[in-house]
Amino acid sequence: MKKLFLLPMVAIVSLTAMLSSCGGRNSQIEDAVRQALVQRDTTQARFDSICAIIKANPQQYADLLTADGEINYAAMAELVESVGSSLRPAMHWNVAAYGVNSLSLTIYFERSGSMVPYDDAGGRGQLKKAVNDLINYFPCSDKVKINIVNDGIYPYNGTVDSFLQDRNIYASTAGVGNASYTDFQKIFNDILEAQTPGNVSVVVTDLIYSPADTKNVSIDKIFNEENSLATNIFRRYKGKSIIVHQLTGDYNGMYYPYNNNAFNYTGTRPFYLLIIADSKVMDSMAASKDYKQFLTVQGSRNSYRFNESESSVEWNVVPDWKDNAGRFRVSHGNGGELTNVNADKTTGVLRFAVAANLSGINPDLLCNASNYTIESLSGFKIDVKPLNPGDITANNKAYLEGKTHIITITGDYKGPRDNIKIALRNEFPQWIEQSTCNDDTNPAMPSFATTTLGLSSFLSGINQAFSTGGNYFSINLALEN
Amino acid sequence: MKHFVFLGIGIAITLVFFILSYSQSFNIFEQLYFNQGFNDQLYNLSMYPVLALIVIILTWGAAALYYYVINSVNFDRWYHWAGVLGITTLVSPIVCYLYIDSALKNAGLAYGGESVQFAMQLLLMSAVLFVVASFSMRWWSTNCRHTPIPQ
Amino acid sequence: MRLFIFAIGGTGSRVLKSMLMLSAAGVRPLDENGQPVSNMELVPIIIDPHKGNEDLKRTEAMLSAYRSIRYKLYGNRTDVDGFFANRIVTLREIMRDSSIQLNDTFIFNLSAVERNKFREFIGYDTMNEANQALSSLLFSNDQLENKMNIGFVGSPNIGSVALNEIKDSNEFKAFANVFNQGDRIFFISSIFGGTGAAGFPIMVKNIRQAANLDINNRDVLRKAPIGGLTVLPYFNLELGDDHRIDKADFIVKTQRALYYYKETLTGANDSNLNTIFYLGDQVVSVPYLYDPGEHGQRNRAHMIELVGAMAPFKFAGLPNSQLSDDNGYPLPSTAYEYALDKDTLNVDFKAMGAETRALIYSKLVKFHLLFMHLNTGFKDTIGQGYTNDKPQIKSDFLASQFYRTLADDFMNAYKEWITEMYNNMRSVELFNIGEWDMNKAIHDVNTAKSFFGRKSVDNNVFKSVMNNLSQSSTYAPDEVELKFLDLFNRAADKIVAERFENIN
For tag attachment on chain B, is the N or C end more exposed, with fewer CB atoms within 10 Å? Predict the structure, then answer.
């Protein structure tokens, strides 16, 4: 009898034990991350304290460390993302960005015949300046390597310092490789092949495709070939992101058009910096203040980021927002589902706010609703505004933390259900077309100073390889009564 | 045998209650009362399982107290049991409220009214769990096994 | 073993009543090892021509009540423990030969005797003159005119003549028929009255001389172990002018009878009677109202009867070796006397000897607690605790025949019995009469000491212990009555042992 009396007690105790035994191998770290997120203490100091726990128990947390005992930022980012997505609203903490301190930079300096005049002693030296800036603004200055490319990739045989101080880089690298043609196929293949995780590669080039033996080959054929090879190369390397910067530099020397009837040209010519990295590394850099100057590049006239997919924009519905009208409930675990949705009883209007972090996207596009595509049955309309710090209260802080914009969605919702798709269109930029020419044999044409032969063929080839779907980001919302 | 079935069902119900306190999509604490911001905070601060545990321990504890510690012929009427039910039903939400209130204050949040309303639903849950606990463990009580209703 | 108990006369009935009370309390005959005698059946046979005798009526009513209560509890089972443990049966109930006409009663049918005056019974009017003269010499005129349905009113000379006819009765034949090897016979009678004093030797003689009778089992009867309780004068009569039983006669009659017994029953070489219990007290009772008539003989229960009631139990527990020789022939008489531990006028359990206490203390205390519980707590318990365990004791239990018989008929008789003994001389004060607090129920026995003062005993304690016992007990659906009394009995065992001072 006495034993039986213990039975219900045992049941309770075992229940308690069940609670304490919950969680996986990394539960301690997950808890720490969760705490940091909930307390909104997503600072690097806090991250470092978590890393300290991991490093103190290398055996237990082997899967969060690299082979050489350093923090595996990719694994940490994954863990943080999984914890953050279980919160309400889902929270994000770009810990991968902390890993940017260990990034390396490799400069690929094109040394083809038509590149030499960019660094002419008489010019203003914009090209060298741009490359020097890249090196100078790269935070991990001790991890910079320089290569010379033309028909192949050749290491620069000086130091970074000597490169920076070199007044005529083409003179000092004369005789490296074969400067008479640039084999994009080989170069990009080799660059992408050689890129290790955490490496940022920058190709300094005029983006003029000049394969060997183009004599008597039609220009269209060359463009098509260029387009195909771009697609072909970049399709092979998944998860890459490329930022193309267009700059203009003084040009003084021989220009070699596609028909090889070289002529002397003095004036300005566009040149390009292609920053190539893993998408995540690129995102991390975009989110890091330290890389701001590195990524934006002084003197950039136009730029465009090629991504394999849409950017994953952080966003969530804000339940506690001053302009909300009607009632709804955000379904947990999937922020895009609103249940128990009812429009305002008197006006019939449903209005709710979505907070989003749009910091990585061109701000000029963001606040103009006409840049967005909105699909819904009820004809919802949106209004996008930057987040005003005065709108943040103690209770909605959690939903606005880390967000830059408020997207207010308004419509006459009658139910019983609706799907809203909001997308910021990512159209192939106009400037690429405008910077493209099909004939570079006549320097007298006014566009010669601003256009590049076959530019759009090459870049659209990359674009096709990444097949972005045409949007920077999209937000999908499912509503039901 | 029948009594062990009751105990098993009682433990199962309690476990389900506990598991549902963890649940994202169908959370037991969000069915009767829901205020997005408030409930999200409770969820984020991992308070649901703690609340569930408080309710479980208080209700099972009160039932155990009644059936095995008090366990007296002086308190074996249905209204004595109902008294313990009443006290438990009141105490459990109050304890939970105090816990929520202090935890939210520590987190710098101000959800006074919501906390009270939330605690109201615990009246029902505590009552139900006390009944569940009672019918799980009463069978082996010497003096109160027929309380509140005869076997 | 069957013990045939012939209770003769008013004293027989009263001792039988005490025996019934002890049996109800669960007192059972114990053998020399202290174990209950197995397969025990008591067959009381009341012999009293005075049918209007109130003591006889009371005893008979209680026998019926006892029998119905016990049947409900245990059916025909023997060897049970608890309240109403001893199986008590009528001759009719155990009779195998159905050719003998017999009423299902404990009372010996003396119809031949009862109807007549004594002169008619002996055919005085048809005697010749010489015999009439002799009869007149032996019997006074009063005695000849005596109507015998009021008994033999202290006249053993009448009784001896009248009761000699018993051997020809159906009852005697039935008794002889069912008597088996191993059964025993016990007589309860007073030595100073009419019926008992005369009936006892005559009955013994008839049994021992069974060889001459036309009955079955003659040989077995001849060898049967026979015991007897002879009660010496213990009560007083209120003085009056016209009464045929005279206290002053008691001593003389007793003296003569003892001489007679010595010659016929208990002599050194006489093996008619194996065991004789002599019981008497120099302290005389509160005077009884003398009433030989139709309302008569309703005497207060007395300690002597309580002590006397233990005699048949003692006899039933004696080993065969003390009663028969190796060939099965009865051994000569052994006489027993009884003494109190303390010679006091207020007899409580502590005044009794250790053997008595061991036999009756806990049983009577338990029965008294049952009596108190039925009067103060049981009704409120229904619908709670153990009463809800299957089989359930519902409120209709209170209206059942069983409960009425137990709680009203039997318990009222019990209350009357202990009250009468208390009000008598010596006063038997086993319990504090009129006290309903269980803690103070037993006279001069406190509840046991505990860390916080004294332990308490009340209805709730009983309820709690019974709840506990009921948890591990199972009873058949038709055993509601047994469940209640069995649980109470076991609970009381525990409570008496653990919560009262130990006086043994």
Answer: N
Task: Kindly state the tokens that stand for C434.
Answer: 């009129």
Subunits with 3+ C-beta pairs closer than 8 A to B:
A, C
A281 vs A262: CA distance, rounded Å: 41
Interface test with A, best of B40, B68, B137 (most A CBs within 10 A): B40
| pLDDT tens per residue across span C175-185 | 888 888 889 99
CA-based nearest residue to A267, from A279, A253, A257 = A253
Chain C residues touching residue B150 (CB < 8 angstroms): 383, 388, 392
Domains and CATH numbers, chain C: 6-111+151-339 (3.40.50), 350-499 (no CATH)
Q: Two tokens at C176?
A: 């002889």
Q: What is the number of helices (H) and of strands (E) in chain A?
A: 15, 18
How far, in Å, CA of B67 to CA of B61, rounded?
A: 10
Tokens of C413: 């008789």
Angle in degrees, CA C340, C345, C346, rounded to 5? 90
3-state secondary structure of A97: helix
Which residue in the block uniquely carries the two structure tokens 């000849």?
C144
Specify if B150 maps to a domain.
no
User: Which of B140, B142, B146 minimises the CB distance to C384?
Assistant: B146
pTM: 0.72
- Three-state DSSP at C457 gives coil
**Terminal-to-terminal C-alpha distance of chain B:** 13
Task: Report if residue B40 sits inside a domain.
Answer: yes
Give pLDDT < 70 ranges for chain A.
Answer: 1-25, 100, 214, 308-311, 332-335, 467-469
Residues of chain B with C-beta less than 8 angstroms from the C-beta of A398: 37, 40-41, 44
Q: Are strands C41-47 and C2-8 parallel, antiparallel or unpaired?
A: parallel
Which chain C residue lies closest to B74 (C-alpha atoms)? C460
Chain B CB contacts of C385 under 8 Å are 73, 76, 143, 146
For residue B40, give how far its alpha carbon lies from the nearest alpha carbon of chain C (Å): 48
Question: Does B46 fall in a domain?
Answer: yes
What's the full length of chain C, in residues?
Answer: 504
Count Cβ atoms within 10 A of the Cβ of residue A159 and give its class: 0-12 exposed, 13-18 middle, 19 or more buried. Answer: exposed
Q: What is the DSSP string of A21-67?
A: T-S-TTHHHHHHHHHHHHTT---HHHHHHHHHHHHH-TTTTGGGB-T
The reply to whether omega before C404 is within 30° of 0 (cis) is: no
- Label residue B127 exposed, middle or buried (CB < 10 Å: 0-12, 13-18, 19+): middle
Is the four-CA dihedral A333, A338, A340, A344 of positive or negative sign?
positive
Residue in chain A nearest C469 by alpha carbon: A1
Where exactly are the structural domains of chain A?
25-87, 101-310+428-471, 314-425
Alpha helical stretches, state H, B23-111 = 36-44, 47-64, 78-106
- ipTM, two decimals, is 0.86
Determine the 3-state secondary structure of C220 from DSSP: helix
Based on the structure, what is the number of domains in chain B? 1
Alpha-carbon gap, residue C187 to C196, rounded angstroms: 9
Euclidean distance between CA atoms C315 and B105, whole angstroms: 88
Q: The tokens of C319 are what?
A: 């080993």
Low-confidence ranges of chain B (pLDDT < 70): none
* Helix (H/G/I), strand (E/B), else coil: A18: helix
- Domain range for residue B85? 2-140
Q: What is the pLDDT of residue C241?
A: 57
Best mutation target among B44, B141, B143 (most A Cβ atoms within 10 Å) is B44
**Cα separations (Å) of C60 from C14, C55, C74, C205?**
10, 8, 21, 27
Chain B positions in Cβ-Cβ contact with residue A331 (cut-off 8 Å): 25
Tell me if B149 is assigned to some domain: no
